[in-house]
Structure formats: C-alpha cells, structure tokens
Amino acid sequence: MRLQFILSEIGLGLRRNLSMTVSVVLVTFVSLTFVGAAGLLQIQIDQMKDDWYDRVEVSIFLCPEQSEQPTCAGGEVTDEQLDALRAELEGPALEPYVEQVYFESKEDAFEAFQERYADEWWAQGVTADQLQPSFRVALVDPEQYEVVSDVFTGRQGVEDVRDQRQVIEPLILVLNRATLMSAGLAAVMLLAAVLLITTTIRLSAMSRRRETGIMRLVGASNLFIQLPFMLEGAIAATLGAAMAVAGLWFAVTYLVEDWLAQSVQFVDYIDASAVWTIAPLLVVVAIGLAAISSVVTLSRYTKV
C-alpha cells in the first residue's frame, strides 16, 4: 500500500511539473555529457601516453659532411668519435637508463627514407651521402630521457640530440587543455542542473503542501513524506545520465571508431568499452545531484 502510494505521488509530481522535469533531464544530459567527454578524453590521453611513451627513443644525430654546428667543425664524424660515443652508450654509467642501442648508418637511413617517401617526387634526388648516421636509443624509463640527452649534447661528432617526446607532448598538451575545458563546462552545467533540480523539487513540494499537511497530521514520518520528491529528482537525473551514456556511446562508436580511426590511423583510439567504464560514474553523479538538491530543498519546503 505504501509503495503504491509513493509511486502514485511520484507520477503525480512528474505530471504536474512536466516541463520542469523535461528541463531537468535535458540539463542533466548536457552536463553529464561534458563530464563523460572529459573522462573519455583523459582515458584517451592515458592510453596514448602508455602506447607512445613506451616507444620513445632518443635519437643522437652524428655530424654529416657539411654542418654549421660547432661540434661538427671537424667535418663528418670520425671512426674514433663514433667508437667513443658507442662505448659511452654501452658503458656502465648509462646501463641503468639504456635498454637498447641501434646504430643507423647512412645506408640504413637512406633505405628507411626511400620506404617512407617512395611516392614523393621531391625525394627522388636524395642520395645516401646526403643523410647522416645516428644512434637510436631505447630507454628503460622514457621519463629519464634527459639523462642521455645531457650526456651527448655538445659532444664532438654529435650534431643534434632529439627526443621523440618533443613531437608527442604538444599533442598531449592540447588534449589536456581540451579535458580541462570540458571539465570546466561540466562544472558550470552541473551547477545549473543542481539549481534546476532544486527548483523543480521546490515547486513540486509547494504545489502539494495540503497533501503534505494531511500526511503530517496522520503521523507520517519525514522520510515517507520526502521520499516521493527525492525519487522524482533521482528519476529525472538518472534519465539524463542514461541519455548522456547513450550519446557518448554513439559518438565513440560512429565518430571515433568508424570515422576518426579510419582517417587518422597512427593513434590507438578508445572504443565503446571506455563509455561503459565511465557509465557508473555518470549514474552516481546524477544520483548525487538529486540527493544534494533534495537535502537543500526538502528540509525547508516540506515543513508544515
């Protein structure tokens, strides 16, 4: 009997404030979509870091025949300089930091160049002598790339020391800023959702003050009186969360997996399973919004 009464009260409240309920659902949907987008972006960033940082190499480019660098004043790197650099890389001082060392000769560099740019017209006139040898150093911990860079920067026979993180980190920075922007917009929208849910619950409580008074007179508890209002907000917020999860799933499935992954193939993108990872969080946030709004409102507007 009590359950039937509570369900009837919930239905009555939702019908009386239908437009406000729809507004709550939509605002919750938009706000949680931003929250979910921020979460998915962070998952994508972490996945890219795990994938790319493990493959980060330090490239030590040796002096070619003609170079304006002071360390190449003697011309092309000599065999003695090459042996000294190799011994340094394979020595005990760098052993804790270096996982593997690969030497790329001019011929190796030319072969890789041809494979990569075989179809480019401007690459047809390039010869092996125009390229330079290099050491490719795989690190035990990619975060410690500066150790190798500091050792070989400025050494005779070394033209330049480059770390692949210099290419990766600008993209990571852009994605991090996009995450912060999404999180900021989500915070604003969540505040709007709390205010709107609070207003909806207040209007529903005020429109039923007579029924609330009668329930007080017959000895109904505070929880029994307030429960229908709390469930109204929770239902509306949960519907908004469900719409947000559905929207994010469609976005990841059709925009990321079917379109973006086919257009830009060097990135390992997240898939729809990431949406299900954050879906419980979105539902918890939605219920939390309803709970906060209910606590703020019902203690005042259900008193008789």
Summarize the structure in words:
The protein is α+β, with helices and mostly antiparallel strands. It has nine helices and four strands, in the order ααβαβαβαβαααα. It has two domains: 2-52 and 169-301, no CATH class; 56-163, Alpha-Beta Plaits. The protein has helices at residues 2-16, 18-53, 79-89, 106-117, 145-152, 165-207, 209-217, 222-263, 273-301, and strands at 57-62, 98-104, 134-139, 158-163. The chain starts with a helix and ends with a helix.
**Percent range of helical residues:** 55-70%
Number of helices, where a helix is a run of at least 4 consecutive DSSP H or I residues: 9
Mass-distribution shape: elongated
Largest beta sheet, briefly?
4 strands, antiparallel
The mean pLDDT is 77
Amino-to-carboxy terminus distance:
24 Å
* Spatial order of the strands forming the largest sheet: 2-3-1-4
What's the Cα radius of gyration? 31 Å
Q: What is the succession of H and E elements?
A: HHEHEHEHEHHHH
- Share of β-strand residues: 5-15%
Class computed from helices, strands and strand pairing: alpha+beta
GO cellular component, one term: plasma membrane
Family: Belongs to the ABC-4 integral membrane protein family. FtsX subfamily.
InterPro entries: ABC3_permease_C, FtsX, FtsX_actino, FtsX_ECD
Subcellular location: Cell membrane
